[in-house]
Structure to design on (589 residues):
């Protein structure tokens, strides 16, 4: 019997080792302590030297040697490598390096044989802007909050050191100790990411929209770490409400990825009822909406069944937050997004809309689950909530949700609020829903123009990922974030931001800002999922002033390829290539 048990144990461990690629020196009990990451690494050499502390080249020598493609290995060769030297009592000789685009990860430093042992101490400041690399923690919002991005490290005489974990594009490296000297062979960025294909694509006759689509996709990709984060410098957390635009971008670009259900379950398991997810009542509503959209795009009924108990109890809890007149009475914290957080009427309008949207989604999910009792309950509260129609409160956030929920006609919301004042009063998070509401009002051109100006404005300032917040007024007399701030220009990162994201604390890679990627796929490329699992898709393109658009869309059955071209008389000619297993319906523009 003992031999049989041992044999079974060895077979079981062999299977675990094969699946998890655990070296066989670990035993069965060791395997229970091991957590495997789905993340890969890329090593990126610098693209340019932005600045050195000594333009004469006497104390900062051979900076351009860092631009050579690195190999990550120290050796015994001497050469013309970067040399930093502090003379006498002086400190902080150094330089700023640009890696070309924002990444999530750390820094690899390779030293040479020409150093003392140890080589010495250097200060590293990672930055999402050039100016952030020149900041001091605790001043102008600079922080080591969710990631240590400003620190001192001792590096060896001859070896490789990997340090840091943050979101950054730029790094400043300074020699710390007086009367010291250090030689560095390589400084490379170490990007941590999911090595997954971009199955969805979008290109059109406007390169600006193409860049915006891809920037939104990349912004979310960087936040797809072991869990789906909000930001890669600050807010490296799972905020379930903020996840909705990210999940819609994942649906449009990557298709199924385990980071979504893993993150949804993480929040669910950490929020026993009657608690609200992330301590924000509306975020529990967003969890329901994400579950509905994830089910429609991915069609995984088995996963949905695992949510049933929590979903049914959450819907029951929500009924206790609606009064006899159908007015939402959601508990604290009452929140839509930060720019609307001081407009209590707008928050009420948004919560009334989200409650209605949540019960509609609950009805669809319970129908799929065959839970007729809760489906009927949702229908009852949908009817009840429709009895109360709040004012739009001069808020684009409120107007968008009221239109999407059906409480206010999209044409009214667009005419009176959404189309007014250009891109003023937009926000990076709720901008997605503003675009959807404008599309529902058939104002596709207005939405396309908003995307070009608002999200394009961040690109004009040097962004390679989309920001936590943005105000179009910041464009006036602004310096780009990828340069030293010229005299007389405004430092956007140091100057602007509010609430929890003031100045350098402001995140410049925030997944909730990716909405245009999902919107362009849905409304311009025209992909509308009508049946769970993408079994039926309606292609309904709206090109506006574009001459052509083409792209791909990931379904559980494979990629759907679509092309639209305007003919000489202005009609749109559509061609597509679909995978087996799905039905496609063409709707003319």
């Amino acid at each position: 019997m003992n031999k049989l048990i041992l044999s079974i144990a060895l077979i079981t461990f062999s299977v675990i080792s094969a699946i998890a690629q655990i070296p066989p020196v670990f035993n069965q009990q060791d395997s229970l302590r091991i957590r495997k990451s789905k993340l890969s690494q890329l090593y990126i050499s610098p693209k340019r030297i932005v600045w050195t502390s000594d333009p004469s080249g006497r104390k900062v020598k051979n900076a351009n040697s860092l631009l050579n493609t690195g190999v990550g290995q120290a050796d015994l060769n001497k050469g013309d490598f970067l040399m930093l030297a502090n003379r006498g009592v002086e400190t902080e000789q150094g330089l700023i390096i640009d890696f070309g685009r924002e990444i999530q990860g750390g820094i690899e430093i390779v030293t040479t044989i020409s150093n003392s042992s140890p080589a010495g101490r250097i200060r590293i400041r990672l930055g999402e802007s050039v100016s952030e690399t020149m900041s001091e923690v605790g001043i102008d919002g600079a922080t080591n909050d969710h990631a240590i991005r400003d620190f001192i490290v001792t590096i060896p005489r001859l070896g490789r050191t990997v340090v840091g974990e943050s979101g950054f594009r730029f790094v400043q490296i300074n020699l710390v100790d007086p009367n010291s000297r250090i030689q560095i062979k390589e400084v490379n960025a170490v990007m941590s990411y999911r090595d997954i294909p971009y199955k969805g694509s979008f290109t059109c006759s406007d390169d600006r929209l193409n860049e915006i689509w891809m920037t939104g996709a990349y912004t979310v990709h960087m936040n797809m770490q072991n869990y789906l984060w909000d930001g890669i410098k600050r807010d490296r957390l799972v905020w379930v409400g903020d996840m909705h635009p990210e999940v819609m971008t994942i649906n449009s670009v990557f298709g199924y990825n385990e980071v979504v259900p893993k993150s949804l379950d993480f929040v669910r398991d950490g929020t026993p009822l009657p608690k609200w997810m992330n301590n924000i009542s509306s975020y529990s509503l967003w969890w329901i909406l994400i579950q509905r959209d994830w089910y429609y795009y991915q069609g995984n009924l088995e996963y949905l069944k695992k949510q049933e108990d929590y979903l049914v109890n959450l819907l029951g809890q929500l009924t206790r937050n609606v009064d006899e007149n159908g007015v939402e009475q959601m508990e604290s914290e009452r929140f839509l997004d930060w720019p609307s957080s001081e407009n209590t009427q707008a928050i009420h309008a948004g919560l009334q809309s989200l409650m209605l949207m949540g019960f509609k989604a609950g009805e669809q999910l319970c129908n799929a689950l065959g839970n007729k009792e809760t489906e009927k309950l949702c229908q009852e509260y949908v009817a009840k909530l429709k009895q109360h129609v709040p004012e739009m409160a001069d808020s684009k956030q409120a107007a968008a949700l009221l239109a999407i929920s059906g409480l206010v006609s999209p044409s009214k919301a667009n005419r009176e609020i959404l189309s007014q004042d250009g891109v003023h009063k937009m926000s990076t998070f709720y901008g997605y829903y503003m675009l959807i509401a404008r599309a529902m009002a058939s104002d596709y051109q207005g939405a396309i123009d908003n995307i070009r100006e608002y999200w394009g404005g961040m690109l004009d300032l040097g962004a390679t990922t989309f920001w936590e917040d943005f105000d179009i007024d910041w464009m006036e007399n602004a310096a780009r974030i990828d340069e030293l701030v010229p005299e007389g220009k405004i430092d956007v990162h140091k100057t602007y931001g509010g609430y929890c994201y003031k100045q350098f604390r402001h995140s410049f890679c925030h997944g909730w800002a990716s909405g245009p990627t999902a919107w362009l796929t849905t409304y311009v490329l025209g992909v509308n999922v009508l049946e769970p699992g993408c079994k039926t898709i309606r292609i309904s393109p709206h090109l506006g002033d574009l001459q052509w658009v083409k792209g791909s869309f990931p379904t559980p059955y494979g990629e759907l390829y679509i092309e639209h071209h305007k003919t000489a008389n202005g009609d749109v000619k559509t061609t597509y290539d679909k995978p087996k297993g799905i039905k496609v319906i063409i709707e003319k523009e």
About this structure: The mean pLDDT is 95. The longest helix spans residues 344-369. The chain has 16 helices and 16 strands. Residues 41-193 form a domain with the Jelly Rolls fold (CATH 2.60.120.260).
